[in-house]
Amino acid sequence: MAMEIPAQVRRYWLPILLFTAGFLFQVLVLPRHFPPTHYDVLGVERFASVERVVEAYESLSKEWLSETSHQPTVDIIKIRYAYELLTNPVLKRDYDLFGLDEHKDVLERVKEQYQMVHFLKIDLPLLKDSVVSLIDDAFNVLTHESFMSAISEEYPLIILVYSKGSPRCAQFIEYWKQIGTQLDGIVRTAMVEVGDSQVAGYFAEKRFSKRPFFRNGVPTLVAYPANCKSPSCYMRYPGGLFVDSVVDWVATSVVGLPRILYYSKETLGPQFIGKSGNHKVKTIFFSSTGERAAPFVRQAAQEYSSYSSFGFVLWREDESQIWWNSLGVESAPALVFLKGPGTTPFVHHGIFSKSEFIEMMEEHKHHELRQLRSDTSLELGCDARGHSRAGNDAAIWYCVIVAGRPGAELSKKRQILRKAQDKLLGDVDRSAGNVDNSVETSSAATAFKDDRLTFVWLDGEVQKQICAFYLATDYTGACGPRDFGDDNDKPEIFIVRFQRNATYEALKAEKKNNLVDVLQGQHADASQLVARYKGPVEIEEINRWISQIIKDGDTREIPYFTSKVPDLVPEETSKAWNSKSIRSAGKSLKENIGFHFQDYLTHPMIGSTLLMCGCISMGILWFRNNTPTQSTRQEKARKDKAKRPRPKLSTSLFGEPSVPDVDPKDARQWEMSSSDSD
């Protein structure tokens, strides 16, 4: 049979619970989170001078040597440790300013080693091998003036807060140099010594006592993003002090660089090559270690995001034959550039520096046959509102376009047009820049050499309007979305001749433009003529046709006229890494709420508050249980109070008549027979 809880205990369960919680908090929680200070161990006031510490230690040491002393060895070790720490100027300074005690591991190790040994056998001093100096290793140390100047610059800043007397800082300094090397050109690095309390105080946290402290000790890392101008809007590094972790945090959280994902042989094609933009060069890194992309590679992925897509592949020996057959990769590390269908991948084996990588990116950032897009039309010289690649002085220029819906047929036509372009480039190179006029393709080669001829391809599915405008008739096989089950893809090759009339342009410049002309921009459009290729899809025939078009276009007098050309539809843009918000001090405050929550659970006033609440609840319950009740006579009077009688309900629907009804004179009683009759 279960023991029944006494009635008094059930009645006062809440005060008992509060008293118990408050007592346990005072006995167990407070001593753990607020242990005695080293000054308390020596029995001196807080922030006592070194002389006062020495005096207290000598007084205590005399007691150890007395024959009547039975003080435990562990207590003597604590006193000796406090004495050595508080007599070292650097260690005492760190302890007084921020409560730093970077040698606790030494204290715990000595206590465990000598707890059963007489104190005279302890090897002194305890901190002889732990005190270090980082005066010679520190570099780019900030003062208050240089600190305020550094955070005002438009460039991310990473700061290492360190102490000259910390062994952890001495071990981390070499890692810090490696971090600075990897982040060179992406962020600035600097150091702040805790002795400069005016600057180091910005990065310290504060508990309820308002005393600054570093939660994880030193070294600690803080970062100021490029848009952070206030000393209090920094970001605190939350992870372990490893080179890879710190570099990844800076690149991702501080600078906002994109991550470059790894792909397997099964996912590289459909997930990376297939889903990235058709206009982008595919940049593939092969790694044998699976390491993260270097910061300068991630920075390049951000800067060249409109030109190239980036991906990593983990090199495996059992897959080496696959990569050799498909991409020509022999071993890792390697870098591959894929530049459109039918092109030979460019492969670079071995490691590379930042400058070498940027040089390769500049060389291979474009497809050999570029895509005509809204953001590249002016650059390529295929926009009536602009000029040729040769500059503003060229009055006539040409753009050869293959338009169609993305697919196998368009890839074939793109490959053929690219080879036609390479053939013209080869004709120019063989003659060392001087093209023989007797050659059938001389006009095209000359225009190509002079940057008056450009080869591009157009996505007819996305750019339906301008595709239909140029082709005019019979464009359903090249322009517009593909119907369900429709495999009738017929990419078309055509050439656009652009011309600017100097006389006409001068007259337009003298004439004051009205508002409609300004808004439509028609005054800036060049004259355009379109010729469609109907011949065989052969490289020589295409170049011969292009050359004839250019020859006629350069020599014949063609009327000058302009027409409104549909605008190119803006396609995919890399918006993910272009928008940067301003980081405020309030955001940093929100990030610290998680850290402060644990501090609130250990607030010194929690125990006393629980005890006070227990007293209050005890008093309330006692008062309620001992208050005299009201007299039974008054209660009975309230219960026996006369009630208002309920009205008597009528037996009829309309109530009892006040005057009896009078029978009419000619009225008679109707008699009902007991049986039916005819």
Automatic annotation (TrEMBL):
GO cellular component: endoplasmic reticulum
Disordered: region residues: 629-678
Superkingdom assignment: Eukaryota
InterPro entries: DnaJ_C16_autophagy_reg (IPR052448), DnaJ_domain (IPR001623), J_dom_sf (IPR036869), Thioredoxin-like_sf (IPR036249)
Listed SUPFAM superfamilies: Chaperone J-domain (SSF46565), Thioredoxin-like (SSF52833)
Domain J residue range list: 37-99
Entry's transmembrane regions: 12-30, 605-623
Protein name per Swiss-Prot or TrEMBL: DNAJ heat shock N-terminal domain-containing protein
Upper taxonomic lineage: Eukaryota, Viridiplantae, Streptophyta, Embryophyta, Tracheophyta
